[in-house]
Amino acid sequence: xxxxxxxxxxxxxxxxxxxxxxxxxxxxxxxxxxxxxxxxxxxxxxxxxxxxxxxxxxxxxxxxxxxxxxxxxxxxxxxxxxxxxxxxxxxxxxxxxxxxxxxxxxx
Length: 107
What we know:
The chain is of the alpha+beta class. It is built from one helix and nine strands; from the N terminus they run E-E-E-E-E-H-E-E-E-E. The strands form two sheets. The chain has a five-stranded mixed β-sheet with strand order 1-9-8-7-6. Strands 2, 3, 4 and 5 form a four-stranded antiparallel β-sheet that branches. Strand 8 and strand 9 form a beta hairpin.
């Protein structure tokens, strides 16, 4: 089943301390990862994710991973066909029993 992916970066939740923190998480249907309203170092995490995605696009769409700064959460992403990605979610380096396929437009 192909799902719609949302990356939630709630600008209303931003707090400036030493680094900027705020809510950032993945939402695929009813599934949220790491959890709904997850709070992390939002700017740092987004820069990491954009860098990983840029490398993915430039390097013939090789698998890549997205990590969070807090906790041991990661998402491993690979292309299975043109426009379809599969996302595998990990907590504490153990794969969760959740695998999501999403449709994306590559630019």
